[in-house]
Specification:
It is built from 16 helices and twelve strands. The protein has helices spanning 3-6, 21-32, 51-55, 72-85, 100-106, 129-138, 150-160, 189-194, 214-227, 244-254, 269-272, 290-297, 310-313, 328-339, 342-359, 362-377; strands spanning 9-14, 38-43, 61-63, 89-93, 112-116, 144-147, 200-205, 233-238, 260-264, 278-281, 302-305, 320-323. Strands 3-2-1-4-5-6 form a six-stranded parallel sheet, sandwiched between helices. The mean pLDDT is 93.
Length: 386
């Protein structure tokens, strides 16, 4: 029996396989379930910067070169691609790929999974009626909607109007062996790179995009430096993106260049996180943020905005503090409270790791998707009951 006959083929469809939390989830799912399923990736626009990691382990990554706007020819190419490939399951990601569900069904694909990982700055609350109606219209073509947070699950069922049996929650998960606390009392090179001895080192990781609201976090650190200079706050933001120039300008305008480092893209996040004192998330919208999970698994207390799936991760007062989005003063106050209470920092960090290990592990996430694929692929019982 051939390998193709033994293992069902899952085709993952994304706008592009670039650097981001959703793409990391897909990367981990694909690479950790290859013993049970064959995988292939189709990118609508171009392959993106993470594609090489899949190709290096033998996972094909294709693109149909979709142009901006209404590129009808691109969807005809998708239909031909699907007709030739015959995948067993098509797994689409976020609003940018949802309309592939229609073409998948038209091409004869019997099972379509659509994952909802979060929203962008153009629709942070999911209130865009056009996008809601698009989901409703395409619902008959989609076997299962998979939200990654309880917040997105409630939204799909209550606001979008999906039937309960059409929606299945699978939380994002991370590798808790890779992301773990560092050695106690050891100040490593990563810490010295960003802050002097005795500083309170605050960190955040993410694409420099408006939805992440890093301007709020920078303003919060500037405010903390003003009201409590003894905290000696230093902020490092790891990532790159379209907001880089605006954030540089803000840092200069606030006069905090000595307090804030924009570190750019890094591939040693697991080495950086254990050397932070506090992790901060200032987003105006989130699903289940992998960076938050990674920070919690690294034993860090969290200050995060009360949006999306963040309250499912951060238990206010136990694993960190939740603050309103867009409120730099509230964030500064929360950061100050933590910086001035080192014993609370340690206890919150311990509780944060414990919570991730119990509820948001990579193994739990992969088992959830594998089980869903298996149930969708299982032969339907005969109506004759033979």
């Amino acid at each position: 029996m051939s390998d193709r006959a033994r293992k069902p083929l899952i085709l993952h469809v994304l706008d592009r396989f670039d650097i981001g939390g959703m793409e990391i989830v897909a990367l981990n799912l694909i690479t950790h379930t290859r013993d049970r399923y064959d995988h292939r990736v189709l990118c609508l626009r171009d392959v993106g910067r993470l594609a090489g990691q899949l190709q290096a382990v033998g996972i094909p990554v294709d693109t149909i070169g979709k142009q901006p706007g209404k590129d009808i020819g691109a969807y005809l190419r998708v239909w031909k691609y699907l007709r030739n490939l015959h995948p067993d399951v098509v797994h689409t990601y976020n609003i940018g790929a949802i309309d592939v569900a229609f073409w998948a069904r038209l091409a004869g694909v019997g099972r379509v999974v659509h994952a909802e990982h979060g929203r962008d700055v153009s629709d942070p609350n999911g209130s865009n009626n056009k996008y809601r109606w698009l989901r409703r219209i395409l619902a008959p073509a989609i076997s299962r909607f998979v939200p990654v947070s309880e917040d997105l699950e409630r939204w799909l069922r209550k606001d979008v109007g999906m039937a309960a049996d059409k929606v299945e929650l699978i939380h994002n998960g991370i590798d808790t062996t890779r992301y773990r606390p560092g050695e106690a009392g050891r100040q490593r090179a990563e810490r010295r790179e960003f802050a002097p001895e005795g500083a309170t080192l605050i960190g955040s990781v993410g694409r420099l995009d408006a939805v992440k609201a890093f301007d709020t976090l920078i303003a919060a650190v500037a405010e903390l430096n003003r009201i409590a200079p003894a905290c000696n706050p230093h902020l490092v933001i790891v990532g790159d993106g379209p907001e880089r120039a605006a954030l540089d300008a803000q840092i200069d305008a606030l006069g905090v260049a000595h307090r804030v480092t924009l570190a750019g893209l890094r591939h040693d996040i697991d080495e950086i996180l254990p050397n932070l004192d506090i992790y901060a998330c200032s987003s105006i919208a989130e699903g289940i943020a992998l960076t938050l999970l990674e920070a919690m698994a690294s034993g860090l207390p969290i200050v995060a905005t009360r949006v999306g799936g963040n309250p499912e991760l951060v238990v206010d007062g136990q694993t960190g503090r939740l603050v309103p989005s867009g409120d730099s003063q509230a964030m500064a106050a929360a950061l100050r409270g933590m910086a001035e209470s080192p014993d609370d920092l340690k206890e919150m960090g311990r509780a944060a790791r414990e919570r991730v290990c119990e509820r948001f592990s990579l193994e739990t996430m992969n088992a959830g998707y594998s089980d869903l694929y298996a149930r969708l692929l299982a032969p339907k019982p005969s109506i004759l009951g033979a």
